[in-house]
Specification:
CATH architecture of the largest domain: 3-Layer(aba) Sandwich
CATH class of the largest domain: Alpha Beta
Helix content: 25-40%
Strand content: 15-25%
CATH topology of the largest domain: Rossmann fold
Number of strands: 11
Number of helices: 11
Radius of gyration: 20 Å
Structural class: alpha/beta
Oligomer: single chain
Distance between the termini: 27 Å
């Protein structure tokens, strides 16, 4: 339950519009709602500033629908990641406002004109760089997460180390960003190069893109973990969600 909804509940009790027993019943769902196969954390938005995000991979279509319905009832914005088209279509049948980003594999539900919507973050811009075109799906997941959390996001794709002049062409955009997410597979060297150019936090995202010796993202992960550029942090392989979420947290602190 959001702070605004809790305040409204208390005001209804104070005004005699709602019985205390009914208010307690509503609030009892606030810590978490037990759906059997999932315990939905409705306090997440109070603690973290954004509701619990649904990770769809490994879940059935029915499970995704039930969890999304529970979240939508209590929150103005709901996000699901790693969703298949089939999962989205199942959600769309029950929640008309659901929107799907096929490239990022995200489902977003926004309640129209809700006063509790996350405000647009005007503190700074998040820039997302991808080393190659093949890295775009992970980069788009990061972008979709950052945008739904209220951030201004800009994308610059295919500026990898094999043609460093492409990266330098966008030096003004890189310098103006508040947080930079760098997504790369293969040798994973791009975050180190970017980190050496800026005084901004750089979030490195290794991807599973690459030939056999890339070991499905392990090689770029180790490269990024051993970066000699200060100010570079690393999330897990293909974890665009984690990068977008963390970038948003940094952006809110400015």
């Amino acid at each position: 339950m959001s702070d605004a909804k809790l305040r409204k509940l208390m005001e209804q009790v104070a005004a005699g519009e709602l019985k205390p027993e009914e208010a307690m019943k509503q609030y009892s769902f606030s810590p978490f709602e037990d759906l059997g196969m999932a315990k939905v954390d409705h306090h997440r938005s109070t603690r973290k500033g954004f509701p619990e995000v649904v990770f769809c991979e490994g879940k059935t279509e029915e499970q995704v629908v039930k969890i999304m319905q529970s979240l939508v009832e209590h929150h103005p914005v709901v996000l699901a990641t790693r969703a298949t088209v089939e999962q989205y279509e199942a959600v769309k049948k029950e929640i008309a406002a659901a929107e799907y980003n096929k490239l990022a594999r995200t489902i977003v539900v926004r309640k129209a004109a809700d006063e509790d919507q996350p405000a647009q973050n005007d503190h700074g811009r998040i820039l997302i760089l991808s080393a190659g075109t093949s890295d775009i799906p992970v980069a788009e997941e990061a972008a979709a997460v950052a945008e739904v959390m209220g951030n201004s996001v800009e994308r610059v794709f295919d500026v990898g180390a094999a043609g460093i002049h492409r990266l330098l062409h966008f030096k003004e955009k890189i310098s103006d960003a508040n947080v930079i997410i760098v997504v790369a597979g293969m040798d994973g060297v791009l975050p180190t190069l970017v980190g050496g150019l800026v005084d901004k936090p750089v979030i490195a995202v290794p991807t599973s893109v690459g030939y056999g010796s890339a070991f499905e993202g392990l090689a770029p992960l180790l490269t990024m973990m051993n970066s000699c550029s200060p100010g570079v942090v690393v999330v897990n392989i293909d974890n665009g969600f984690g990068a977008g979420y963390f970038a948003s947290m940094i952006n809110r602190m400015k």
